[in-house]
């Protein structure tokens, strides 16, 4: 049976708790109670008690339950999407709230169907050794506010599939979305295998530092990733760290500006730029620079931004004031430095809601803050280059190494350039697409460990060799 929006909200809101506001309008939409240290400890104890029974449940049954969880999400999809839109700000339509809820169901199903078998490592007549993947135990799942349901599923689904229990902590900025997702999943899962906690950094730190936690799956900023490494040093839970990115795209001289404009746009502006592996700095060859900028700006100017519950919009507000201020500061600094604002750049600071207009900044210094800092919003800097070696040097100069892209009409040439980029994924003629069958993870300060596919399942298991 499907829930209405009001029923879903009533199940997860705590009257009298911290107010949650719609970032597009400022309206209060609900309230949450933040977990205190005793709540965190109780949640971990509940998960720990449930985990052995879950680990003993046959894999076929766990897989069937992941499919049932996907069914439950599909049944409640409209209520989940509306809540996500109202709390996160992303529109219902476009690659946004409905798309995100659909991806949650798709990821659960793909995770259920990913084969994982013991591997025979040696079988030479004398020695026989197999590698098995056993449950880790209790997994702490800590998520950011940009894709609050989908990123949570990326952590929860493989962890459950491999026989672990999960304590999930959504971002304090999107707590209701996280609680709503867990509420729907828990309608089909055995009690205690998936337990939510709420709160900000203190709750996350308490989870990471707990001696009862065996693995932390963390997605968020590099600064917080470093704190998690510190707070886990005493107990050594396993870590998967998906951290900040500042993805470069390089447009080669042979690219077709008109053909690539739409792909460049969505690579940079999906989720209004608030995406880990979005295109955050674009390097374009001088010979086609003006044409690429003009085509991109022309496409961008036609993409509607506004309140997410209006079906016409496909770009929304920034999720919070802090992120608005970061984007505003970076664009203002670029302007002061003489960069050319081709589109946007003038937010209505008096408006209700954290709307920052779609912004393209051309003829910008490659060392400008808007280029070298992660903007995480709808403001793309476009840098001109003449020598590909310079573009590669700029692309690889930063600490970040999540994604990158190469744009060219010559696939072989693009693949040669891709091989020289320091990033966990390099896309050719697109940017940012993820797939539950394809491993995803960062290099350098964008983190370590892989999610998705069989590598993602192994990441939430402990290897055990059976020798003999
Ligand atoms: P954030 O690091 O501020 O917060 C992420 C989560 O960590 C939140 O739940 C927060 O409460 C929690 N947290 C904060 N301090 C903590 C601590 N000391 N110990 C444990 N948990 C703590 O990140 P954010 O602002 O929510 O998200 C934006 C960032 O996330 C961007 O840098 C973006 O690039 C990155 N991101 C990366 C990926 C990826 O897959 N690599 C995906 C999405 C977002």
Provide a descriptive summary of the structure in words:
The protein has 468 residues and is of the alpha/beta class. Strand 1 and strand 2 form a beta hairpin. It has helices spanning 5-12, 37-56, 59-75, 77-88, 97-113, 150-161, 175-186, 201-209, 222-231, 257-269, 289-301, 321-336, 369-372, 388-397, 411-418, 453-458, and strands spanning 18-21, 28-32, 119-123, 128-135, 138-142, 165-169, 194-196, 215-219, 238-242, 247-251, 279-285, 340-343, 359-362, 379-385, 403-407, 425-428, 447-448, 461-467. The chain contains 16 helices and 18 strands. The protein has two domains: 5-243 and 443-467, 3-Layer(aba) Sandwich (Aldehyde Dehydrogenase, Chain A, domain 1); 247-428, Aldehyde Dehydrogenase, Chain A, domain 2 (3-Layer(aba) Sandwich), CATH 3.40.309. Residues 142-146, 151, 169, 171-172, 200-201, 204-205, 208, 219-221, 224, 227-228, 242-245, 276, 374, 376, 402, 442, 446-447 line the site of nicotinamide-adenine-dinucleotide (NAD).
List keywords for this structure.
binds nicotinamide-adenine-dinucleotide; Aldehyde Dehydrogenase, Chain A, domain 2; six-stranded mixed beta sheet; Aldehyde Dehydrogenase, Chain A, domain 1; alpha/beta; 19% strand; globular; seven-stranded mixed beta sheet; 40% helix; 2 domains; 468 residues
């Amino acid at each position: 049976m499907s829930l209405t929006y009001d029923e879903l909200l009533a199940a997860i809101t705590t009257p009298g708790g911290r107010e949650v506001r719609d970032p597009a309008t400022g309206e209060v939409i609900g309230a949450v109670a933040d977990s205190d240290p005793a709540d965190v400890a109780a949640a971990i104890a509940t998960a720990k008690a449930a985990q052995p029974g879950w680990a003993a449940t046959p894999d076929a049954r766990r897989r069937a339950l992941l499919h049932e969880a996907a069914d439950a999400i599909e049944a409640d999809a409209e209520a989940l999407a509306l809540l996500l839109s109202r709390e996160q700000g992303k529109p219902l339509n476009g690659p946004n709230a409905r798309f995100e809820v659909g991806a949650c169901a798709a990821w659960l199903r793909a995770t259920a169907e990913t084969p994982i078998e013991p591997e025979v490592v040696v079988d030479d007549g004398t020695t026989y050794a197999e590698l098995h993947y056993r449950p880790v135990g209790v997994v702490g799942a800590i998520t950011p506010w940009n894709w609050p349901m989908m990123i949570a599923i990326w952590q929860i689904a493989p962890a459950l599939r491999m026989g672990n229990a999960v304590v999930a902590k959504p971002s304090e900025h999107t707590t209701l979305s996280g609680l709503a997702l867990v509420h729907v999943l828990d309608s089909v899962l055995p009690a205690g295998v998936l337990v939510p906690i709420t709160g900000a950094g203190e709750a996350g730190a308490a989870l990471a530092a707990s001696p009862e936690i065996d693995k932390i799956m963390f997605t968020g900023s590099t600064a917080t990733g470093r704190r998690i490494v510190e707070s886990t040093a005493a107990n050594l839970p396993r870590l998967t760290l998906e951290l900040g990115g500042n993805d470069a795209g390089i447009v080669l001289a042979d690219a077709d500006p008109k053909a690539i404009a739409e792909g460049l746009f969505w690579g940079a502006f999906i989720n209004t730029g608030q995406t880990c592996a979005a295109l955050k700095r674009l390097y374009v060859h001088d010979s086609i620079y003006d044409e690429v900028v003009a085509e991109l700006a022309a496409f961008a100017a036609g993409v509607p931004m506004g309140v997410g519950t209006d079906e016409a919009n496909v770009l929304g507000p920034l999720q919070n004031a802090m992120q608005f201020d970061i984007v505003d500061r970076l664009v203002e600094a670029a302007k002061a430095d003489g960069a050319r604002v081709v589109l946007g750049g003038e937010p209505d600071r008096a408006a209700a809601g954290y709307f920052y207009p779609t912004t393209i900044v051309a003829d910008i210094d490659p060392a400008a803050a808007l280029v070298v800092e992660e903007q995480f919003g709808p403001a793309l800097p476009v840098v001109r280059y003449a020598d590909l070696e310079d573009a590669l040097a700029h692309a690889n100069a930063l600490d970040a190494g999540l994604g990158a892209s190469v744009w060219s009409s010559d696939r072989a040439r693009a693949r040669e350039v891709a091989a020289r980029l320091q990033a966990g994924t390099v896309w050719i003629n697109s940017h940012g697409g993820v797939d539950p069958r394809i491993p995803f993870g960062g290099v350098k300060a964008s983190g370590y460990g892989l999610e998705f596919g069989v590598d993602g399942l192994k990441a939430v298991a402990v290897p055990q060799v059976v020798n003999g």
